[in-house]
């Protein structure tokens, strides 16, 4: 069986410096104070690395980033936050070589708990060789690590008398495991790829569909400093904007959009408001962020109620549009939606939860059973610094994070109302209608449709064993 051992930093992942990933752990598992403290020590850590004391610099970084944190919180960040940023930095040439082997092993300087989910779930690695966080009997990280620099010994233990077929790593890195491999390959990998391309079909790594956390950008030192400098301004802006939302009517939004920092791009033609001769329509949207229904109402120039599942009470208080809380009881929710549609327009997001990446989750077919007046609306959203929705943490803080961003861009595209023949009245099943609307929105946005559901998202983020990633079209 062909086998490969690859270094993670600087090989499978382009950036040889893992510092920004520890910054993510500090922010997402602890908060801005630890985030700022770790950044303050960055010049010292950098100096230690320059002096050849990388082991000391790593231990100092780990200690500041994780000491006193629950191991469950660290593992959650490693599972739900870091994979997206690793994927953004992946070296596709290294991956194409790595993916062709049967037994794949990754060697890393970072603690195993931070990288294991990414390399196993998305790169298909069978083993991870890295340092281990020391955890006390109460489940808290002590800030200490063990098994630092034991790559070669662990490779020998893992492979026994059999030498790995290929070693991938930098020419000048902490990759002494390379001497144990039958063949060695260093960046830029062009020669090896040329030899392989005639006999292999290169495939893509399994994409990251779900991820969590507040930070939009990877906090490399310069970006982290910018975020910290902006935080006081963002806090003030967030308070001002939330007060304005509570006090000002929705129609005032165009006149104060500069203060909101909001850019809205509208495409397509919106349907007219309901009247005696024109009953209300159901706006069916994909769900990108907390404010999707509010932005839709802003574009339409009228308050359109929206159905919600897990909106916090704080957000409901500040919401400038009516919100209708559903129960996840199908019959009760169907009656609620029908009664609301009798009064006029309604907005629904059939995914049931947000998805940040360019994918659409499976649409619930309930909406298709209740009306034939269906207008699909494609929504895309780009935030500046902070994501407005997370799976963990206090939900009441979501709206505040949205308003803390320096600038936010929304793109709203109205599609044509579905013809009768494409609805349940035209003989289609509710699932056929839901899948068709999902496909329409995916094609408009350039997103891939999946069969994932809200439950799948939370199962994956919770780390349930046996969950398999896929992107099968609906």
TrEMBL record:
<protein>
    <recommendedName>
        <fullName>Phospholipid/glycerol acyltransferase domain-containing protein</fullName>
    </recommendedName>
</protein>
<dbReference type="InterPro" id="IPR056462">
    <property type="entry name" value="HAD_RAM2/GPAT1-8"/>
</dbReference>
<dbReference type="InterPro" id="IPR002123">
    <property type="entry name" value="Plipid/glycerol_acylTrfase"/>
</dbReference>
<dbReference type="GO" id="GO:0010143">
    <property type="term" value="P:cutin biosynthetic process"/>
</dbReference>
<keyword id="KW-1133">Transmembrane helix</keyword>
<dbReference type="Pfam" id="PF23270">
    <property type="entry name" value="HAD_RAM2_N"/>
</dbReference>
<feature type="domain" description="Phospholipid/glycerol acyltransferase">
    <location>
        <begin position="281"/>
        <end position="382"/>
    </location>
</feature>
<keyword id="KW-0812">Transmembrane</keyword>
<feature type="transmembrane region" description="Helical">
    <location>
        <begin position="224"/>
        <end position="248"/>
    </location>
</feature>
<dbReference type="Pfam" id="PF01553">
    <property type="entry name" value="Acyltransferase"/>
</dbReference>
<keyword id="KW-0472">Membrane</keyword>
<feature type="transmembrane region" description="Helical">
    <location>
        <begin position="20"/>
        <end position="45"/>
    </location>
</feature>
<keyword id="KW-0808">Transferase</keyword>
<dbReference type="GO" id="GO:0016791">
    <property type="term" value="F:phosphatase activity"/>
</dbReference>
<dbReference type="GO" id="GO:0090447">
    <property type="term" value="F:glycerol-3-phosphate 2-O-acyltransferase activity"/>
</dbReference>
<dbReference type="GO" id="GO:0016020">
    <property type="term" value="C:membrane"/>
</dbReference>
<keyword id="KW-0012">Acyltransferase</keyword>
<comment type="similarity">
    <text>Belongs to the GPAT/DAPAT family.</text>
</comment>
């Amino acid at each position: 069986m062909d086998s490969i051992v690859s270094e993670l930093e600087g090989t499978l992942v382009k950036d040889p410096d893992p510092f920004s990933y520890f910054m993510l752990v500090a922010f997402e598992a602890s908060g801005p104070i630890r985030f700022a403290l770790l950044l303050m020590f960055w010049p010292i850590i950098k100096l230690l690395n320059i002096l050849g004391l990388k082991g000391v610099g790593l231990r100092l970084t780990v200690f500041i980033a994780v000491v006193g944190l629950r191991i469950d919180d660290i593992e959650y960040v490693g599972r739900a936050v870091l994979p997206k940023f690793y994927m953004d930095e992946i070296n596709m040439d290294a991956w194409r070589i790595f993916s062709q082997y049967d037994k794949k092993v990754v060697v890393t300087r970072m603690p195993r708990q931070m990288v294991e989910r990414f390399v196993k779930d998305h790169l298909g690695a069978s083993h991870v060789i890295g340092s281990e966080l020391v955890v006390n009997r109460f489940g808290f990280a002590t800030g200490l690590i063990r098994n630092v620099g034991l790559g070669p010994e662990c490779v020998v233990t893992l492979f026994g008398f059999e030498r790995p077929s290929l070693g991938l790593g930098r020419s000048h890195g902490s990759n002494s495991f390379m001497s144990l491999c039958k063949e060695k390959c260093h960046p830029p990998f062009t020669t090896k790829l040329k030899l392989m391309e005639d006999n292999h079909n290169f495939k893509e790594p399994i994409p990251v569909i779900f991820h969590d956390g507040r930070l939009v950008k990877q906090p490399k030192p310069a970006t982290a400093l910018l975020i910290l400098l902006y935080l006081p301004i963002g806090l003030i802006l967030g308070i001002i904007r939330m007060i304005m939302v509570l006090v000002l009517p929705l129609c005032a939004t165009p006149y104060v959009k500069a203060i909101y920092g909001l850019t809205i791009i509208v495409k397509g033609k919106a349907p007219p408001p309901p009247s005696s001769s024109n009953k209300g329509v159901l706006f069916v949207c994909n769900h990108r962020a907390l404010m999707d229904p509010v932005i839709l109402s802003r574009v339409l120039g009228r308050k359109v109620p929206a159905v919600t599942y897990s909106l916090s009470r704080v957000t409901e208080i500040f919401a400038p549009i009516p919100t209708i809380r559903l129960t996840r009881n199908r019959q009760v929710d169907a009656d609620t939606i029908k009664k609301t549609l009798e009064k006029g327009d309604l907005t629904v997001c059939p995914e049931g939860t947000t998805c940040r990446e360019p994918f659409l989750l499976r649409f619930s077919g309930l909406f298709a059973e209740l009306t034939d007046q269906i207008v699909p609306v494609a929504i895309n959203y780009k935030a500046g610094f902070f994501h407005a929705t997370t799976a963990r943490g206090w939900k009441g803080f979501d709206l505040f994070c949205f308003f803390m961003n320096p600038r936010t861009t929304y793109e709203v595209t109205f599609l044509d109302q579905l013809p009768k023949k494409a609805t349940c009245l035209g003989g289609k099943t509710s699932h056929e209608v839901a899948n068709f609307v999902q496909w329409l929105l995916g094609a408009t946005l350039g997103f891939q449709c999946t069969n994932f559901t809200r439950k799948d998202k939370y199962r994956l983020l919770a780390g349930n064993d046996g969950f398999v990633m896929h992107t099968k079209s609906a």
